[in-house]
Amino acid sequence: MTAIRRRTLLAGAPALLAAPALIGRARAATALKVSTSFSNDPKFSTGRIWYDLFLPRLKEATKGEVVTEFFPDSQLGQEADIVTQLKAGVVDMMLAGTSIWSNVVPEFGAMDLGYVFDDYNHMLRASRTPAAAALQTLLVQRAGAHLPSWGRNLGARNFLTKFKFSEPAQLAGRKIRSLPSPWVTETVKMMGAAATPLAFGEVYTALQAGVIDGLEHDAPTILSSKFYEAAKIFTLTRHIYSPFGAFVSDRTLKRLTPAQGAGLLQAVREATADHFKRAAQVEAAAVKELQTKGVTVETCDRAAFRKRMPPMWASFLKTTPSAKPMLDAIHRTFKA
Questions:
Q1: Is 125 part of any domain?
Q2: Quick one: 51 and 148 in the same domain?
């Protein structure tokens, strides 16, 4: 019996010796935390759609050496908190619009100015200028975050409200939730409403409780977050075409090997390009689905709202003169 046990142990010895190596390889992959305030809806969430496009790209570009953990629905904190965590390297990636960064890099506010972009193709042209590249450099220097590629949200920002309107005067006294970004808030004010900045995670309950009369966001986000349950009028103001990005912590890139870091950035760029191509289709589908859920889609006098914006653009340059190259680039690229 002893001999049999001995032979069994000896036979199994190679496997036992190999086990640590196998375990070591299994643990070799570096896991990154990816945070977003967007929902986990695979059909209409900007963050989730981008993430699903990103995963196969990351696996290929890093040969499986870098993996991710996805935290949607503000699970790791509100966006302002994640900005701090990203700089510290506690969170590795953040999927968000560029607007949140204007609190750290005020020059990003140029992208949030109401009616400054004609459409998302205009935004893309502006993002390819030297001025936009300078903004990306400032982001690394001041916030410890990289924006590898300029993307787009799944649609322009519009108003979802409990009341109907078509011109600025009809917004007077109405409390409209705006993104907690100074120039998004100012845009809503210039449009005639009482801008009410709120964290994304607080919007649904505030709308439901009547703390706000509406909000401004893109159609897919309104759909995936179920804001339509508390407000039924969607007006195509198209006041902001804000960029979207997958922001990567500088500390994370320094922690990865050069090959892993290059692969991560490559995957981000490729996923963002894929996302940009798909976004318009997703927006159109979201608007149609909102209608099936009892939401009325309305138009408005966009020209009347846009006429109110130049004084705000001028005010922005007074407070942030260093943003002039970016604003000039936006105006210069208005037409292809």
A1: yes
A2: yes
Domain contains 169: yes
pTM score, whole prediction: 0.83
- How far from 279 is each of 148, 163, 204, 274, 293, CA to CA, in Å? 19, 28, 24, 9, 21
Closest listed residue to residue 166, CA positions, set 296, 303, 300: 300
Q: What is the CATH number of the domain that holds 215?
A: 3.40.190.170
What residue numbers bound the domain in which 128 lies? 29-154+242-278
Please tell me whether residue 128 adopts helix, strand or coil conformation: coil
User: What residues contact residue 133 under an 8 Å CB cut-off, 6+ apart?
Assistant: none
Q: 126-133 long-range contacts, Cβ below 8 Å, gap at least 24?
A: 126/326, 126/329, 126/330, 126/333, 127/243, 129/329, 129/332, 129/333, 130/325, 130/329, 131/325, 131/326, 131/328, 131/329, 132/326, 132/329
Handedness of CA 9, 14, 17, 18 (dihedral sign): negative
Full pLDDT tens readout for the chain, 336 residues: 434 333 333 344 444 344 444 334 445 789 999 999 998 999 999 999 999 999 999 999 999 999 999 999 999 999 999 999 999 999 999 999 998 998 899 999 999 899 999 999 999 999 999 999 999 999 999 999 999 999 999 999 999 999 999 999 999 999 999 988 889 999 999 999 999 999 888 999 999 999 999 999 999 999 989 999 999 999 999 999 989 999 999 999 999 999 999 999 999 999 999 999 999 999 999 999 999 999 999 999 999 999 999 999 999 999 999 999 999 999 999 986
